[in-house]
Amino acid sequence: TGILIATPMVISAVNAWRTRATPSAAQLAEGTAIAGILAGLGYLLFVGDFSYAFVLFVPIIWAALRFEMHGATLAILAVALLIGLHARYSVAQASDGMGYRYAMLQLLILVAAATGYIVAVIIRQYRYTLSELALMNSRLEQRVIERTGEIKAAEQRFKATFENAAVGMSILDG
């Protein structure tokens, strides 16, 4: 699970550094809210019963929907750190049955990471498709405007030719 978390984190950090991405104040506030929710849920889950661990998926999906890979990566990293802290401090409390519990915690990280990354990729593809559709739509509108102008010019030429002809002309339908 380390590669599953570390690789997207490094790629996201490099891409953010390369594009000089700076979040807006609203994005910082929303990211802070996601981090706070993750911390609060982590504390509640790890202090109490771990059977409600599925609620950790909500902020991960929220981060993936709003911030794509960057948000999903940071949220998954936060969950992995929370689970790591829980695993480290729970060793002192009990040692029986911890192998199964660690395996389940690793599975939780794996499923959370896969879910977050899949949602982030789908959202990125959706936004890319929307931008491509908008670009194609604007190109089509420009072509319609150009073609309409060409048709109007041809109609005016035909009308001028018909009205200014030296000989009589008529149009017969049939």
Keywords:
174 residues, mainly alpha
Write a brief structural summary.
By secondary structure, this protein is mainly alpha-helical. It contains 4 helices and no strands.
Describe the protein.
- With 174 residues, this protein is mostly helical.
- Helices cover 81% and strands 0% of the residues.
- It is built from four helices and no strands.
- It has helices at residues 2-19, 25-47, 57-90, 98-163.
- Helix 1 (2-19) packs across helix 3 (57-90) and helix 2 (25-47) packs across helix 3 (57-90).
- The radius of gyration is 30 Å and the shape is rod-shaped.
- It starts with a helix and ends in an 11-residue tail after the last helix.
- The model has no long low-confidence stretch (mean pLDDT 82).
Instruction: Tell me what portion of residues adopts beta-strand conformation.
Output: under 5%
Class by helix and strand content? mainly alpha
Mean model confidence by pLDDT: 82
Report the span from N to C terminus: 78 Å
Number of helices: 4
Largest beta-sheet characterization:
none
